[in-house]
Structures are given as structure tokens and as C-alpha cells.
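Hi R.,

Here's the chain you asked about this morning:
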Amino acid sequence: MRGKWLLVARRLHLYLSVFFAPLLLVFIISGWAQTMDFDHSTPLLHNLSQIHTKQFYPLASDAGKIGPKVDRARFEQITRPMRWLVATMCVALLISIILGLVMAFTMVRQRMQVCIALFLGIVAPVGFLVLAHFY
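And here is the predicted structure, written out as C-alpha cells:
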């Protein structure tokens, strides 16, 4: 049973990661651009930033349709499918990460190294966030 479950987990992890990889790349690039304040440096990065924050890619033909005076209900309606895709991606990413951690702990003989890597992966971001309050 254990071997069959791991095969199913690996296959699910593979398909989830391949399916959502392009969307994750868009979110990584746009998030990086926002973090580094590059999101307004080029029209492409600005538009990718809109995908990241509003789940909408503005086209030149949308200039008058989507703006500060847009009907909020209409905006919610046109972005709903993308919001659902992003929500699905979040769930799939969580499943994929959990499956990856399960496989890391079950397929490696040196579990202590995996534990150390996981510990550092938690402590480093928390530490940097805490240090930011001292500067």
C-alpha cells in the first residue's frame, strides 16, 4: 500500500506542478517586480502587476472600460474566472508542497538533513521579517 500511495502522490505532484508552473512564473515575476519597485518601469511589468493584484490583464482597448470609475460589480464579474483559477492554484500549490514534503521525508535516508532544511526554510524568513523592525 505504501508504494502505491507514493506513486499516486508523485504523479499528482507532477501534474499539479506542471499545470500551474506557467501561472506561478507569472506571479513570481510580477511579485518580484512589485517588490523591487519595477512594476511601473515598463508597460509589460505594469500589466503583469495587474494580473498579480487584480487578476486582470489590461489591454489598450480596455483603457476606458477598466479604471477608477468602473462599475465594481462588472469588474468583479469579469475577474471571477481568474480569481477562481488563482484560488485553485493556491490549493494545488499547498497540496503539491505537502506532497513534496511527504516524499522528502519518506524517500530520503538522511531525514535529519531534510529536517534541518525545513527548519531553516521556516526560521530564515521569520528572522528577516523580525530584523526588519530593528532598522
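One quick note: The two ends are 53 Å apart (CA to CA).

Cheers,
M.
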